[in-house]
Design brief:
single chain, 43 residues, mainly alpha, 77% helix, transmembrane helix, transmembrane, membrane
Length: 43
């Protein structure tokens, strides 16, 4: 087996660790951008 090739289990662990922070960062980025737009743009 090639140690450089991740197994299915390794991929699942990587996805499990990376997706939640990515989702959180995306949520915060969207929330901050919306907050900035609300402050700059008068509705």
């Amino acid at each position: 087996m090639n140690p450089l090739v991740p197994t299915a289990g390794d991929v699942l662990w990587i996805v499990a660790f990376l997706i939640p922070p990515a989702g959180l960062i995306t949520f915060v980025a969207v929330w901050v951008s919306r907050r900035r737009r609300r402050g700059r743009v008068r509705d």
